[in-house]
């Protein structure tokens, strides 16, 4: 993450394959880009293991979310990319 004109700009990215068993590597991931809209079931960095469903996430949007894991069960959004 770089500070440019007072804004935090991501400097790395990773494509996400949702998994009920695998915790996200790398990061810290501070944004989630959703390429194909839908629901995302995830746990946040400060509450690992606690599932939260983000309903109707819009396609083409980067959401400022500190993620720990994205679960395959219940996630319908597609083309997910982590930014940090």
Number of folding domains? 1
Q: Can you tell me the residue ranges where pLDDT is under 50 for at least 5 consecutive residues?
A: none
Structural class comes to: mainly beta
Number of helices: 0
Number of strands: 9
Would you list the SSEs in sequence order as H and E? Answer: EEEEEEEEE
Structure description:
- This protein is mainly β.
- The protein has one domain.
- The chain has no helices and 9 strands.
- It has strands at residues 2-4, 7-9, 13-15, 31-36, 38-44, 52-57, 61-63, 67-71, 78-83.
- Strands 3-9-4-7 form a 4-stranded antiparallel β-sheet, with no helix packed on it. A 3-stranded antiparallel β-sheet has the order 6-5-8, with no helix packed on it. It has a two-stranded antiparallel sheet with strand order 1-2.
- A hairpin with a 2-residue loop joins strand 1 and strand 2 (7-9).
- The protein is globular and about 30 Å long.
- The protein starts with a strand and ends with a strand.
- The relative contact order is 0.36.
